[in-house]
Amino acid sequence: MNPFVRQVLPISLAAATAVLAGSWAGGLLAQFLVLGTVTAALALTWGTAGILNLGHSVTFGVGAYAGAWFGLHAGAYGSLAGLAAGALLGGVMARLIAAVGLRRRLDAVGFALATFVVALAAEQVANRWTPVTGGFNGLTDIPRFHVGALAFTATAARGVTAGLSVLVILLLASLARRPYGAALAAIRDNERRMAALGYDVGAAKSGAFTFTGVVAGLMGAVYVLQVQFVSPGLIGLAMGTNFVVWAMLGSRRTIWGPVVATLVVNAGANQLAGAALDYWLLVTGAAFIAAVVLVPDGVAVMVRRGLPTRWFRARQVVLGVAAPSTDSLAGGGLVVRSVGCRFGPFTALRGVDLDLIEPGVHCLIGPNGAGKSTLLDVLSGFTSATGGSWQLNGQDVTGRPPWELTRSGLGRKFQAPSVAGSLTLAENLAMARWGRTHRTLALIRRRWTAELPPEAWFVLDAAGFADRMDTPAASLSHGAQQMLELAMTLTANCTVLLLDEPTAGMTRTETQQIAEVLRGLVRDHGLTVLVVEHDMAFIRSVADRVTVLRGGEIMASGTVAEIESNSEVSAVYVGRAAGDRP
Ligand code: ADP
Ligand code: MG
Is 238 a residue whose pLDDT tops 80? Predict the structure, then answer.
């Protein structure tokens, strides 16, 4: 269905109704549209980016107080100043919360709790800081929207309120549809993978969060210009919870669901207000619990599943073949010198040296707990080293974060298949391609096309993905997800590839396929590969060199034959037939 008919028309009709319906009903509808916009903004960070925010009301409320204060004190241009101040203060507030909560590696629950506390505190401040906020009673008689000497009628002011809401909702919907929204969804699905593809996930999350704060702050100011009244209830936890409930009921993973849910719930509450208000709260609570249990994805997603898919334009992702890369990375491989890593008193790695200079497959073996995964995590920036240094393609990259390492030519394939399950294969690959030049503006402007390097196509062809590009990655088998992740890693244009147990959980055939693919990557594409493995048959078929790690230290290094005839190594693996998994 035409996006205009599906999206623009209904919301414009709602806005027109708000303008034309007379001052009582129209005013309420305009007010609910503003709240719907704020809920939609919450959906962008919570549903799309996966950041649960119980204090969305704080940015909304700060904007509301800013709108009220400037409206009352800034004279002829008070309305405009209020809108600007609302957006600015909402953004600043969100930026501060993000700086504390998202940058300091709080986990999702820790961050949600932090926003809970901020909402509680904000309500206290609004209640106590009477000279500015009017305290418990709030601020009343805020002048209606005006610009200079031009005073708007009540109808025109509703037009401004409803019009701004519609514009912002359409903007949010557009952002969610674009590569920008898909990148946020991929970060929600798999943050580590996105970091390993070159995305600065911390900056992306805090950027999205700040933008949502700007929207909520702006709409807070719009709200008070419409209702001409502000009180601490707008900034507190109850309001923050409302936004979360409305978004959840509507479908936090869409923009339209939350808008509609906010309109319906508020209209319902209004109908039943007065005598039945207590029951209404009970009804909302019950509806929320029912939604969590019965339709955890929200009503909009449920409705959408029942409608023809052609109504919801599937993204056409066009994947091409990249010309031989012009920004080709200087060779030089990976050189590791006396890397150490401690977890508290426990030493996981001690004085590890590695030289991966020539193209080839280098296998890393060793008993469980030897520190193999830790070494890969350190080299790819996911765990901090406590000593040593390493060079990538001639550049000292010691201690760099994952996305910077990726941009310098390091590829990391995780042990568990690690893809964005809610995105299609093609979308995953496009995301992988854009990671190396991750810029927010570019993601907003970008079209759904991406050029993949030949080595990625080599893997995609080997896996036979050609006719499955539009299926969600979550529907692939374990082995196929491993292949997709490998193709994504190569799409980011790496020269040195680190793989952690790529054959774990794979069938014999799939294992052979991986072995052939790795040999092909070395032979035809000049890659340097470090692979952690247990399977001796696999190692014999791929390895140019083998290094044995034990107790965090390198015990031996040589060709397969040399390692297999090393009596010390055999002693470590004693009692295990070759080919067994320890
Ligand atoms: P391998 O991959 O060789 O089986 P790992 O690198 O996963 O071994 O682990 C090496 C040792 O470091 C193990 O003893 C493990 O318990 C320990 N270890 C790994 N990660 C951590 C961590 N985040 N905190 C504490 N100890 C860890
Ligand atoms: Mg491991």
Answer: yes
* Whether the predicted pLDDT of 46 surpasses 80: yes
Residue 277 pLDDT more than 80?
no
Q: Count of CB atoms within 10 A of residue 59's CB?
A: 38
Domain ranges of the chain: 3-311, 334-574
E strand or H helix that includes residue 194: helix 191-196
Take atom 24 of ligand 1 and give the residue whose Cα is closest.
343
Total count of residues recorded for the chain:
582
Q: Which of 368, 374, 548 to mutate to test the pocket of ligand 1 (most atoms within 8 A of CB)?
A: 374
> Of 163-172, 292-301, 405-414, which gets the smallest average pLDDT?
292-301
Residue 190 pLDDT exceeds 90: no
Give CA–CA dist 56/241, Å, rounded.
9
pLDDT in tens, 500-518: 998 888 888 889 999 999 9
Q: Which residues line ligand 1 (CB under 6 A)?
A: 343, 346, 348, 366, 368-374
Between the CA of 62 and the centroid of ligand 1 the distance, in Å, is 46
**Is 0.70 topped by the overall pTM?**
yes
Residue nearest to atom 16 of ligand 1 (CA): 369
**Contact (Cβ atoms closer than 8 angstroms) between residue 397 and residue 385:** no
Cα of 436 vs its chain's centroid, Å: 16
CA of 445 to the centre of ligand 1 (A): 42
The predicted-structure confidence for 255-271, as pLDDT tens digits, reads as follows 888 999 999 888 888 87
DSSP 455-521: HHHHHHHHHT-GGGTTSBGGGS-HHHHHHHHHHHHHHT--SEEEEE-TTTT--HHHHHHHHHHHHHH
Q: How far is the CA of 368 from the centre of ligand 2 (A)?
A: 7
CATH 1.10.3470 fits 3-311, yes or no: yes
User: Do 117 and 226 touch, CB atoms closer than 8 A?
Assistant: no
Homologous superfamily assigned to 334-574: P-loop containing nucleotide triphosphate hydrolases (3.40.50.300)
Alpha-carbon distances of 518 from 372, 496, 530, 540, 562, rounded to whole Å: 19, 12, 10, 13, 22
pLDDT in tens, 133-180: 888 889 989 999 988 888 888 899 999 999 999 999 999 999 998 899
Beta bridge partners of 139: 230
The secondary element (H helix, E strand) that includes residue 352 is strand 346-356
Task: Give the per-residue pLDDT at 339.
Answer: 93
* Ligand 1 centroid from CA 519, angstroms: 29
Q: Two tokens at 78?
A: 């008070």
Amino acid identity for residue 272 in this structure: L
User: Residues near 23 by Cβ (< 8 Å), separated by ≥ 6?
Assistant: 154, 155, 158
Q: Is the CB of residue 569 less than 8 Å from the CB of residue 542?
A: no
Query: What is the pLDDT at residue 149?
Result: 83
Please write the tens of the pLDDT for every residue from 87-110: 999 999 999 999 887 766 678 888
Same fold, 3-311 and 334-574: no
